[in-house]
Amino acid sequence: MDTKVILSFHPNIVAHKNILCAGRMPNDEDQRAIQKAEAIILSQGCHEAVYRLCRKHCAHVFPNYDARFDFPGKLGQTRLFQKVGAPFPRTYPFETVSAYEEHARQNARKCPVGFPCVFKSDWGGEGEGVFLLNTPEDLEQALEGAKRAEQSGQKGFLLQTYIPSGGRSLRVVVIGDQVFSYWRVQKDPSKFLTNIKAGAVIDHASDPGLQQAGRAAVRDFCSKTGINLAGFDLLFSQDEKTPMPLFLEINYFFGRQGLGGSLRYYELVEKAVKVWLGTLGLSL
User: Fold this and answer.
1) What is the rounded CA–CA span in Å between residue 278 and residue 284?
2) CB 231, CB 173: distance < 8 Å
3) Rg of the chain's alpha carbons, rounded to an integer?
């Protein structure tokens, strides 16, 4: 096999050699191909074990999911934000409810960041497991839910300062060296979440200066972490005269509506892969 062979596990990107192993681990033949590949292209939903195997044997893997698997979940992302020095709302992570109760000592209903605050489960994405807490009773209810989740193996949550953002968040999408941004605006004041599933609408045009600041912050973050395929959620406080972008979450699976749909997304990924390969002196 040519030492410059490009191997693709991506169902939509044709390379010198293609392997589809959705739902299974690479077999012996697949592993030999991995070991000989000069560059490897993986799908967005690749399993961690497949990614680790490819990274072990090949220096050039797209996408770069080191941060995704080294800092998993919202608790892991909090550690990553701290490590990189990225600004984010004041956050208290807890591995279990008992860890929170130990932190709270005598008053298990006390919120370390005050009310209102935001409760986020370590698992889930695009708003799943995220709640606005306005009272100690809300916190108690959220903790009871966390206890039930722990019984099914879903552990970990964080409490985060509530940032008034005018009912909108900035989504910044990174696909290779391409960076896109748009607002997700919640028109219903009774709803806290600003994702599309919760009824938010997409706004590409408003506040271009803030969008530029958000894209610049994400570019800097990615230059430090190697992330090249993800959707970042940022907030700008409406209480600040000149607000800075605050990192909320990294979504490695993200909606494509704001990019123009799935077909457009796959076109952007293919373009990103070709540019990435070009930097390595390779081509499909």
Assistant:
1) 9
2) yes
3) 21
Claim to verify: residue 33 and residue 11 sit in the same structural domain: yes
pTM of the model: 0.94
3-state SS assignment for residue 151 = helix
Q: Residue 126 pLDDT more than 80?
A: no
Q: Which domain holds residue 43?
A: 6-63
Residues 155 and 213 in one domain: no
Q: What are phi and psi of 114, to 5 degrees?
A: 80, 175
Q: What are the structure tokens assigned to 24, written together?
A: 């299974």
280 within domain boundaries: no
Token pair of 183 as six digits: 């607002």
Q: Tell me which residue has tokens 């709302």.
A: 89
pLDDT one-digit tens code per residue, 237-252: 999 999 999 999 999 9
- Cβ atoms of 122 and 155 within 8 Å: the answer is yes
Instruction: Give the total number of structural domains in the chain.
Output: 3
Distance CA(42)–CA(37), nearest Å, equals 13
